[in-house]
From TrEMBL:
This is Bcr/CflA family efflux transporter. It holds the Pfam family MFS_1. Belongs to the major facilitator superfamily. Bcr/CmlA family. Keywords: Cell inner membrane, Cell membrane, Membrane, Transmembrane, Transmembrane helix, Transport. It comes from Marinobacter lutaoensis.
Length: 398
């Protein structure tokens, strides 16, 4: 199948994550009122989903290596859809958090399967280009998600958002079953015992270059997740914007992400993805430095929003380049390597996001300072990354 067809179907699958994170952001005030809780406590439902999305990948990755991508991915979609329907029925914060955890398990099995499928089919610069194309297609989801959520709120209430997520997961499952799996190049299943699975994870953990890229992924994603978690507070409470204006500003982040993703694709023909990654991490850091200065000086909304959009937009180039480099060393353990990357990314970022909820509902400066701290760590790791990533035969042999 063509790269575009593969990217379209995998992009639809990856879009589950942004939809589950972003679609209900405009509904935070409504959910808080319905459940009788503080606005910042609703963020716990997001943090619980993200943390589970990471931890469950440690199980889903090896399962996909051993039993194949199809059963793990389709099973994940089924769990995701059922849990989304149950979230819509939740009447307490604990109930909502519990079903979001279950939803995170289903989402994890989907999330870990997509990069593994890409690594099954291509590698190197070609993988970076394919990841970029997948990212470009799935950017539609986070761009439209808050607006879609705001539209549903005008027609009904927040429950409808999660029912829509359940329906979307069913549609994706039907599309993958009919159009993707029958056309994928077959790969041998890894018939390995539990002891070997542990050994495989140790191979990834001991690979210092791979773990450097994992660290970059965690820290850069944390900057974005911190914004996502507190975006409703920043725009709707701190600056008093309506649901519609909030959705528009949120979509601006995705528009820049898509633009930088488009620019990144032709650049890959002339520069190694590691060099592009380093440049984009630095640009994100500079945008966050400017953001902290503006917030500390009590700057206006348009200036704060400009700095946020610039910082979050850099993810459009960071994500595809970093994922391709992180998975390059383990072509025969794509699911396991992707699980390690996803688990670290979502679990650690989710923990940082959850901790930020302690102060996230009271002031803006601590939020942006935390974003800057994460970005500074990513810069240090990126500056020490090798100028060109080459495969290691020892890792391949594993």
């Amino acid at each position: 199948m063509s790269h575009f067809q593969l990217a379209l179907l995998l992009g639809m699958t990856v879009a589950l994550g942004p939809l589950a994170l972003d679609a209900y952001l405009p509904a935070f005030p409504s959910i808080a009122e319905a459940l009788g809780i503080a606005h910042n406590q609703v963020g716990l439902t997001l943090s619980a989903y993200v943390a589970t999305l990471g931890l469950a990948q440690l199980v889903g990755g090896p399962l996909s290596d051993r039993y194949g991508r199809r059963p793990v991915l389709l099973g994940g979609l089924a769990v995701f859809a059922a849990a989304a329907a149950m979230v819509a029925q939740a009447e307490t914060l604990s109930g909502m958090v519990g079903w979001r955890i279950v939803q995170g398990i289903g989402g994890a099995f989907c999330a870990v399967s997509v990069p593994a499928i890409v690594r099954d089919q291509v590698g190197g610069q070609e993988a970076a280009r394919l990841f970029g194309l997948i990212g470009l297609i799935m950017f539609i989801a986070p761009a439209a998600a808050p607006s879609l959520g705001a539209l549903i709120l005008t027609l009904g209430d927040w429950h409808g958002i999660f029912l829509l997520l359940a329906g979307y997961a069913v549609v994706v499952a039907l599309a993958l079953q009919g159009a993707l799996f029958p056309r994928l190049r077959p790969r041998p299943k890894a018939r390995t015992p539990v002891s070997t699975l542990v050994t495989n994870y140790l191979l990834v953990l001991r690979h210092t270059t791979t773990m450097r890229f994992v660290g970059i992924q965690v820290l850069c994603f944390s900057t974005m997740l911190l914004f996502i978690t507190h975006s409703s507070f920043i725009y709707q409470e701190w600056f008093g914007l309506s649901e519609g204006r909030f959705a528009l500003l949120f979509a601006a982040n995705i528009a820049l992400m898509a633009t930088l993703n488009l620019i990144n694709r032709p650049l890959l023909r002339h520069f190694p993805s590691v060099i592009l990654l380093r440049a984009q991490v630095l640009l994100q850091f500079l945008a966050l430095v400017a953001l902290v200065i503006v917030v500390a000086m009590d700057g206006p909304l348009w200036l704060v929003a400009t700095c946020i959009i610039a910082a979050i937009g850099c993810q459009g180039g960071i994500i595809p380049n970093n994922m391709a480099n992180a998975l390059e060393f383990f072509p025969h353990l794509g699911g396991t390597a992707a699980a390690m990357l996803g688990a670290a990314q979502f679990t650690l970022s989710g923990a940082i996001s959850a901790l930020s909820s302690v102060y996230g509902g009271h002031a803006l400066l601590p939020i942006v300072v935390t974003m800057l701290a994460c970005s500074a760590g990513a810069v240090l790791l990126a500056l020490g990354a090798p100028r060109a990533v080459a495969r290691e035969t020892a890792a391949q042999a594993a």
